[in-house]
Amino acid sequence: MDISAIANQALERAGEAAASGPNAAETLAHLADGEMKAVNALILERMGSPVPLIPKLAKYLVEAGGKRVRPLVTIAAANMIGYTGDAHLKLAAAVEFIHTATLLHDDVVDESDLRRGRKAANLVWGNAPSVLVGDFLFARAFMLMVDAGSMDALHSLSRASSIIAEGEVRQLAVKGDIDATVGSYMEIIEAKTAALFASAAEVSAIVAGRPAEEIAALDTYGRELGLAFQLVDDALDYGGLAQSLGKNTGDDFREGKVTLPVVLALKKSGQADKQFWARVMAEGEQTEADFETALELLHRHDALKATLAMAEDKARTAQQALSVFPDNKWKTALSDLAEFVVQRAS
Fold first, then answer.
1. Residue 223 falls inside a structural domain
2. pTM flag (> 0.85)
3. pLDDT over 80 (residue 19)
4. What domain range includes position 279?
5. Which CATH number covers residue 249?
6. How far apart, in whole angstroms, are the C-alpha atoms of residue 222 and residue 262?
């Protein structure tokens, strides 16, 4: 069976699942409602500062919403393994601070217009304040990690923070590179996205003193979930879902980011198509009509379907990693979350 048939089956299954039940992220948020309220209160408390611009800018992005998927994973993992302390609340808040800080920095680098459906913070207050407030949030995240009282958890999240930065620099270095490979793309998204998901999942098991097997299983779950999440995001950037995503459709295209859909299309392209990609990506010469041409090429070569099929495979691997844990409602919620990540594309 060819990749197109496999991809079509994956999309059909995702569509059927999406139509058959509630939003898994909302279900998980409902389960974790009490603890997430505590996490949100902690976030608001720790982003306070006598420098007025800092809480104002931070609050603008934090209160813009988002599903808080990463801290939700931390909370759900803690409950799944029966942890009874409160260190996971501090770690969940730290995870959200790290994520928010990277968003502030990314919007400056990418010159984005929208973030979570609102004007990007750097367009409201400027690049310098956005970068500096991002630094402040990173510092607050590390204070929360220290307060959690686990050197191993601190090591996990601090390592993830450095890997994220490496991934972003690597992505910047290969901007417009039409010779990018599937392997090089996967290395970038494993660093810039999957590393924080992996750490968010495993830190609860770390502070709970769980066996190495369980920590490794949660690391795998988070990593594969993060890969699926990014793969779907990169496909959706060409899917016309700007309102759902909270960002402009075609941002990756306009910024010259050679994501997996483009890599896969290039593998099947003839010389004329390769010249098109070289012009719009490597040389940055784009016209109003070029995005539609790019969409046509991606659909012609089934690049979006293939990307989503890979995302479903990653989500399935994430679900399988949970097999070492006893069945309970939190395990089910985490498994459903992995499926939901792919359903977003249906």
1. yes
2. yes
3. no
4. 21-343
5. 1.10.600.10
6. 25
